[in-house]
Amino acid sequence: MTDTVTFKIKRQDSKSSSSYWETFTIPYVPNSNVISCLMDIQANPINAKGEEVTPVVWESNCLEEVCGTCTMVINGKVRQSCSALVDQLEKPIKLEPMSKFPLVRDLVVDRTRMFSALKKVQAWVNADGYHDLGPGGRLSQEHQETAYKLSECMTCGCCVEACPQYSSGNNFLGAAAISQSRLFNMHPTAKNMAGERLDTLMQEGGIADCGNAQNCVEACPKSIPLTESIAEMGRQVSDKLWHNIFKA
Amino acid sequence: MSKQRVIVIGGGLAGLAATMKMAELGMSVLVVSFLPVKRSHSVCAQGGINGAVNIKGEGDSPDIHFYDTVKGGDFLAHQPLCKDMCHHAPYVINLMDRLGVTFNRTPEGNLDFRRFGGTLYNRTAFAGATTGQQLLYALDEQVRHFEVQGLVEKMEAHEYLGAVLNDDERCVGAVIHNLRSGEIKAEKGDAVILATGGPGLVYGRSTNSMVCTGTAVTSAYLQGAKYGNGEFIQIHPSAIPGRDKLRLMSESARGEGGRVWVPKKAGDSRNPKEIPEQERFYFLEERYPLFGNLVPRDVGAREIYDICVNDKLGINGEMKVYLDLTHHTREFLDHRLGGILETYEKFTGTDPREEPMEIFPAVHYSMGGIWTDYTRTSEGLIDHQSPQNQMTSITGLYAAGEADYQYHGGNRLGANSLLSCIYTGLMMSPGVLNYVKNVPQAAEDVPETVYTTSVNKWQESYSNIKSMNGNENPYALHREMAEEMISNVLIVRENEKLKSTLDKINEFESRWKNVKCVDTNDWSNPVPSFINQLWNMIQLSKIITKGALLRDEFRGSHYKPEFDLNQPSDFRPETYLEFEEQKETGNIQEDAFAPEHLAYMKNFSENNIKWLKTTIATYQNGGPDISYEAVDTSLIAPRPRKYD
Predict the structure, then answer these.
(1) A57 lies within 8 A of chain B by CB
(2) B390 backbone φψ class: left, alpha, beta (φ>0; ψ -120 to 50)
(3) B127, B241, B266, B633: most buried, per Cβ within 10 A?
């Protein structure tokens, strides 16, 4: 008898159709991860009842946890499926799409809201142009280390999926975008726009919507200090509020 | 004048650099990408980006960078392009620094640089071990800013199917497939840039991302564009085995002092840490005392193949060697290489700070790609205003980044790919806009029928794919094809095997016709796209294999032992320059050279006359017709490579 692995996968054909669970039992192969198993299903799309079905639809790209594409909920925990090694997972392995974003199909969701949040917090350097203006300013190694860590955010969605405050019913920016506003507020030239970023964070959906559950930092696959970022931006926002009060 | 725009296909470094630059110059840009552009394959680049800034006071210069690049590519790259790229490299790095890339710093706060393969200088700027990701994010942010300002429009979750050509065979737009709704429609554009990356998926598992099927450039080839140097596929010496993909272990691991070794005794099954120093064979350091572990990738991959297959010294008899960083402190490793060591640990369960890594060679990069043009100046640089720069052989259709063929010759140097992508995107933009300004007819004024004809053709093609009901699973067929390519068109190439692979590919092509479209839904169905991509991958594998079969020489990544000229071990490349000079003056003093040197030099010279040429594939009668074109080698005289 050959070893097998069983997957229970939550499937849905489209936004308007209803979801259903489908079970697949496939031969166990050493060193598998969730993606390689989904690929096996794709090459032989037969469910546990022996019925030929459509291959499960999912999204992935880099397969080394730097692009953020293949995020899904695995055994109840949101994470990238490429780094979910079969040997380390409880069986049967349960796969679900993220719940905080509009569903597209099966395990695919639409994370446009996260990219819109990056627009709102103006997550960019306002450059004078792309011609040769010489090097940027000198920066300490300490600054680089802090900034680099924040800059590793791949907009994967784990932090907001785990967040109790983030829902389809509100417009909370979420931890990822708040952390990006910290990154740009500390950059030597992007900080010229710091005030505008703070104005955004003061509005509805901004920093006040954080309920301090601290799930985000737990869920982040890149160990970005998200709660530290939220605390730092909270401080910057209240400084600005006080400043506004005294100025008035 | 009507409103004009440029369509950029692909949102990696090359595509976004071009988008950003053209938007700065006031042009509207439509970016089309499979995924949100922030998720493009450029994120996988790890080690860094080259630029001779000489921050370490080693006497490095753009001209030395240029020389290393041309030599690394075994003289097959067009030299004016390489020269212009290397001379602009410090500017590119400075620009990315200004745009917020979190490059590592020296104690004084300057950008830090490390060593990479194929050079003796610390020339590689880096942001931890996720430099590509960091560079891509900076460009993504700039492009998002333009998006807010309304100059850039993005179509993500869309794929490019083909160029729309008018009656003069000029590109006036693109046919785009919405990967959600399944809708196929035309987008008008006064120029189209293919910045769609490489074709790693032709080999199934490689270091490439899942979108790297090469399908867009193959589509251009099927529409008549020339394809250059297809057989030159880079095998990276160090990858981590995996079932779904072969994850890269960056060259920067060796740049930071990583040492490659195998046990001296075949089949030594001891834990590597228990094998004493004198029982380890540091074969790269021994065979290449000058470059050591940082020989170029083609050399590194071949040596690993040699030590594993011919000397049978691979770990446990397999195609694997140790890459050892354990002599460094954890702090040093986390600071300089953090990201990639985490990746290794996460995917193998072994901590590379404590145990030597097990690595093996894997398909990594295509030096070849769609043929593109350029205009050189009298100084041997590039005229940045020329509309010809980066134009394919289809007027108005451009290519940039890994999708093109011109910057890396027969073998790319590590950390030159990020440079070539960003440089190309920036460099080509003024020329593309000059082309757009002078088009005989703006896309908006092109008759609607031109677009509907193209769209109808593609709609019919996809509806045919959807009705395919044979008995082959397309994904399983892809696995088989990839296996064939991996087995026979990799590091060591033999004509008999290449011939039989070509026959096999033709069989795959027939079997493709018997594929079953295993999902026929209209909504968000990736299967018809994959079947179309598989067809293109079959066509591309023919270009690679036939190019390899016909090129009877050993150059760069293309190694045919049968045609190795066997450079004498005591030969110096400078001797060849003397020989060539004497040949030119018609006064060869044959006695002045050792007889085996003389024989080698004559062979080398003859071989170059025959083979120092770009391979050109054009689609004819259902397959590639192969011809050859001259390479511009006017700035640095070709000579034998040597790294020891």
Answers:
(1) yes
(2) left
(3) B127
Residues B40 and B138 in one domain: yes
| Nearest one of A62, A90, A59 to A77, comparing CA atoms | A90
Categorize the per-residue pLDDT at B639 as very low, low, confident or very high, splitting at 50, 70 and 90. Answer: very high
- Do residues B28 and B169 share a domain? yes
Q: What is the CATH number of the domain that holds B243?
A: 3.90.700.10
CATH of domain A4-109: 3.10.20.30
B307 DSSP assignment = I
Q: Based on the fold, state whether residues B437 and B340 are members of the same structural domain.
A: no
- How close is the nearest chain A Cα to the Cα of B349, in Å? 10
Percent of chain B scoring above 90 in pLDDT: 95
Indicate whether B72 and B106 sit together in one domain. yes
Would residue B575 count as lying in a domain?
no
The alpha-carbon gap from B627 to the nearest alpha carbon of chain A, in Å, equals 35
- Is the CB of residue B267 less than 8 Å away from at least one CB of chain A? no
Task: Using alpha carbons, list the distances in angstroms from residue B62 to A61, B54, B59, B82, B183.
Answer: 35, 9, 10, 10, 48
What's the mean pLDDT in A91-110? 98
Residue B195 belongs to domain with CATH number = 3.50.50.60
Residues of B in contact with A126 (CB under 8 A): 145
| Residue B243, domain extent | 238-361
Question: B586-607, pLDDT tens digit by residue?
Answer: 888 889 999 999 999 999 999 9
Chain A hits for B145, CB-CB cut-off 8 Å, are 122, 124, 126
Assess whether B89 and B123 both reside in one domain: yes
- B295 within a domain of the structure (yes/no): yes
CA distance A119 to B67: 43
Same domain membership, residue B226 and residue B156: yes
pLDDT tens, B348-367? 989 999 999 999 999 999 99
Q: Is the residue at B149 inside a domain?
A: yes
- Which residues are within 8 A (CB) of B472 and not within 5 positions of it... i.e. 6 or more apart? B511, B512, B514, B515, B516
- The residue among B144, B210, B337, B343 with the most chain A CBs within 10 A of its CB, best to mutate, is B210
> Any chain A CB within 8 A of the CB of B475?
yes
Burial (CB count within 10 angstroms: exposed 0-12, middle 13-18, buried 19+), residue B159: buried
Contact (Cβ atoms closer than 8 angstroms) between residue B394 and residue B223: yes
Instruction: Report pTM.
Output: 0.97
Instruction: Closest CB to B130: pick one of A36, A59, A66.
Output: A66
Catalytic center residues of B: 297
Q: Inform me whether the pLDDT recorded for B305 exceeds 90.
A: yes
Q: What is the mean pLDDT of residues B232-251?
A: 94
Give the domain-ending residue among B405, B424, B450.
B450
Residue of A nearest to B346 (CA): A83
Distance from CA of A245 to the nearest CA of B (A): 31
B303, B327, B361: which is the final residue of a domain? B361
Residue of A nearest to B211 (CA): A61
A46 touches chain B (CB under 8 A): no
Mean pLDDT, chain A, whole residue set: 96
Q: Which of A53, A49, A55, A43 is nearest to A6 (CA)?
A: A49
Q: Which of residues 511-540 of B touch A (CB under 8 A)?
A: 518-519, 521, 523-527
Contacts of A81 in chain B (CB under 8 A): none
Do A197 and A173 contact (CB within 8 A), yes or no?
no
**B369: CB partners within 8 A, 6+ apart:** B198, B217, B227, B228, B229, B399, B402, B403, B404, B405
Give residue-wise pLDDT tens across range B315-345.
999 999 999 999 999 999 998 888 889 889 9
- Which superfamily does A112-247 belong to? Alpha-helical ferredoxin (1.10.1060.10)
